[in-house]
Give the backbone structure.
Amino acid sequence: MFFTFPQTLISVMLCVTLLSGCAGLGYYGQSVRGQASLLLNAQPISELLVDPAVDESLKGKLRRVIKIRRFASEALGLPDNASYTQYVDLHRPYVVWNVFAAPALSVTPERWCFPVVGCVAYRGYFAAAEAHAFAAGLADQGLDVYVGGVTAYSTLGWFDDPVLNTIINRPEAELAGLVFHELAHQLVYVSGDSTFNESFATTVELEGARRWFDHLGRPQQAQNYADKKVIEQKLVDLIMDYRGRLEVVYGGEGTDKAKLIKKQKLIAALKADYKKMRKHKKAQSAYDGWFAQDLNNAHIASIGTYHQFVKGFERLLADNGGDLAAFYAAVRRLSKNSADERHAILAVN
């Protein structure tokens, strides 16, 4: 029993070594070290709750997590394992930093391929300095780069994901939604299809939050959370609209110099439109920091369409009478189709 973790860690290291080749060992090494450090420092929440040295405020937040975690398995049918039953204080604001990159005249992101998760449009680092060093190297190649901090991620069930200090102070709706969202990734995950995966997890997140607050007798909070998600999607839609405009410029006629000038004008217009939206929709304030940066193609490419197929998944849930077990089974069947078939089935006008 006590050798389970080291054996698993060695197996993962061996796996990535064989699949990635020697050129990737440095990157995978930091990933394994970072994940190992996180897991080795995890403490069972049950022990922290009876530890007199633990602050009562933290204990209250951890009790809330335990209730949310129990509800996730008992009421939502999400994986019943040790994920989110442990706590880690990383003593930093982010668990990892993701590096995004795109050519100066393209919003198509660079992609990196990994075992299990497939190809994704970022590289994650457990140390900010390493992320920025990698980004600097990409910038030297003439690429637009962006480094963004991440407060949580899922290991897709390979390990028991702990609760982190980076998320523990979130409002109840956001914390519950995050737990439901990340556990959904453990339930169904299609390698290389981020839009499918995130839309499914977001659907579970929203439905889970609704049922959680109904369970507590506070349905208005669930509605407030759903409304906030709608506003966030409008912001994503705004960015995606400008992404489309940039694509037209980059693919059109004209010199590179002329395209670069048009690029800067469009980015300035995007910021101006955000300010207009910001005056009327306070929930978008979380994006102020993102828009305050010198935006480039990598920033634009980092914004995912997490809600693109949410309506399609919600329709699938309704078709199954709101029965989550039947819904999950239907999603698993759907995941066996080709990407084009999945997307066509889920597309809702």
User: Anything to note?
Assistant: The radius of gyration is 21 Å. The first helix runs from residue 4 to 20.
